[in-house]
Amino acid sequence: MKHVAIVGATGAVGQEMIRVLEQRKFPVSTLTLLASKRSLGKSMTFQGKQVPVQELTHDSFAGVNVALFSAGATTTKQFAPSAVKAGAIVVDNSSAFRMDPGTPLVIPEINPEDLKSHKGIIANPNCCAIILLMAVYPIHKINPIKRIIVSTYQSASGAGAKAMEELRLQAADVLAGKAPVPSVFQFPIAFNVFSHNAAMDPETGYNGEELKVIEESHKILHNDIPISPTCIRVSTMRAHAESVHLELTNPVDLDAIRRAIENSPGVRLQDDRKTNHFPMPLEASGQDDVIVGRLRRDIASKDGREMDLFCCGDQLLKGAALNAVQIAEIV
Amino acid sequence: MKHVAIVGATGAVGQEMIRVLEQRKFPVSTLTLLASKRSLGKSMTFQGKQVPVQELTHDSFAGVNVALFSAGATTTKQFAPSAVKAGAIVVDNSSAFRMDPGTPLVIPEINPEDLKSHKGIIANPNCCAIILLMAVYPIHKINPIKRIIVSTYQSASGAGAKAMEELRLQAADVLAGKAPVPSVFQFPIAFNVFSHNAAMDPETGYNGEELKVIEESHKILHNDIPISPTCIRVSTMRAHAESVHLELTNPVDLDAIRRAIENSPGVRLQDDRKTNHFPMPLEASGQDDVIVGRLRRDIASKDGREMDLFCCGDQLLKGAALNAVQIAEIV
Fold first, then answer.
1. Which has the least CB within 10 A, A183, A217, B95, B274?
2. What is the dihedral of CA B37, B40, B44, B47, to 10 degrees?
3. Cα-flanking dihedrals φ and ψ of residue A159, to 5°?
4. Which structural domains are found in chain A, ordered by start?
5. Which residue is catalytic, options A118, A231, A240, A312?
6. By the 8 A CB rule, do A230 and A196 touch?
7. What is the value of pTM for the model shown?
8. Is the CB of B300 less than 8 angstroms away from the CB of A227?
9. Could you tell me which of A299, A159, A303, A287 has the C-alpha nearest to residue A235?
């Protein structure tokens, strides 16, 4: 049994972490919920009991075995070393240590062996990278990927619980004939689509989300295949979708690829051409599996080595909380 | 002055056609509004006057000079020959004659010379193809495109006025905690994303919308460059967005491409990396121009000939009604 702490327990991902620990019957002896001072007085339900939220301090980690961080990179940088010093293993959902060469960045279905080298902190990858790699890794294993071009359809949840509420409020305003009022996002999210809100590198014109997808995918796959992402927010609540174009090493064998996906853990094939039923955010919401479909050979490909697919995954679950708890289960 | 008829006058595109004729001061002597029997009794405002909707019959076109059709391929196939026989020039927004070798398929900014060969019917291209080609043609002119990979973010309007209303009703239901009820679309459109509802070719796994983008682009550009489209519906009202990856003939010169877009009719550059302000459906709605931005060299490209961009266009205007009226202006 383990003493588990959740840092950022009141956030969208923190709340899912509590539920995932329950559902997966993680052997929790004590659950400590930590958040900023603002959340003092709140409590969250875990295994039928109310657990009060405590203020995060450097002394919060005495006796903690596993600390799940989901409170942004600044909080991680400030408090994760204290957790490690107190003897906890940190699984961090922020970008703080993801590209640190000494920190493993892990999707348990893909590179669990990287966990061995951890020095107290393990980084949970970016949600878009997780969903992309979960979808394409079964293909990569049987026919190595040489090139990825991906356009995303990212949900409000990626920007937190307040962004999800903003989508609801703006949608209600628009339906009532009022102008949507942006607050979390710079632009209206209801009934709109916009380039991802992550900070942009003015030199390359890539935003931070796109650079994460590239760099983190390389670190997880231990390669440097060319990846061209375009990250876009859409008017959905909590599941990301991605339209993926792949160039493979050998000609595309769709039957073999379908079998590979069906036989891989953490992914589910939804690829019904007759009923036009393919992965959708609404059906991926609340699901552990990343859903993969619209598998097709690229009819424009001259040598038959290109293909396309569409995938969806719950941004808060496999894109964040679930993957973090899976890491904690292994370590 | 011309006698103009609009077939499908009460539909989403038909209504925009009336407005576009007004705004562009098309020299209309008489406006005849035609629709199915169900719309009898309705009337529409044109130049401040109420024009009654008449039932479409084979005898509707006496004296008509220009007939703008937007009532689906079946109606066009049935009634366009009667309009031509009566001496009208037909501009048809359906897919009925688009790929007919004897029918010009025209975007006035791109291939106006194809209009010369018309035999009474001119086809208005698919909305996605128009918006894609408007965005990339300025680039194609200075550095010929060798390859297009495009993922779309298509609005409800592409499925008509009822689909737009369905998006509103479903969004209200979801906000009220009720389950969305699909009717026009097979799947919920509110707060969701799904593979385009066009019929799918079970053999290739491409849907009809994707095949239109490929075939119509080839006909308009008079080439057969490889195009790989993935067509997706999103929760927006009336402007399509597209994420476009291009391989060019020569290395990408972004400054030259920006200038080319700025100097091209019918497109507007919105490409501000500092403020993260790029094309968005909400800002493209009601606008004639296709908005183009997020121009960037693909940093994964080995020889510097690949680039990405994002574009948005009003599906009902440049994607349909405006392009049709522009064709009518020329002929």
1. B274
2. 100
3. -105, 10
4. 2-124+321-330 (3.40.50.720), 129-315 (3.30.360.10)
5. A240
6. no
7. 0.97
8. yes
9. A159
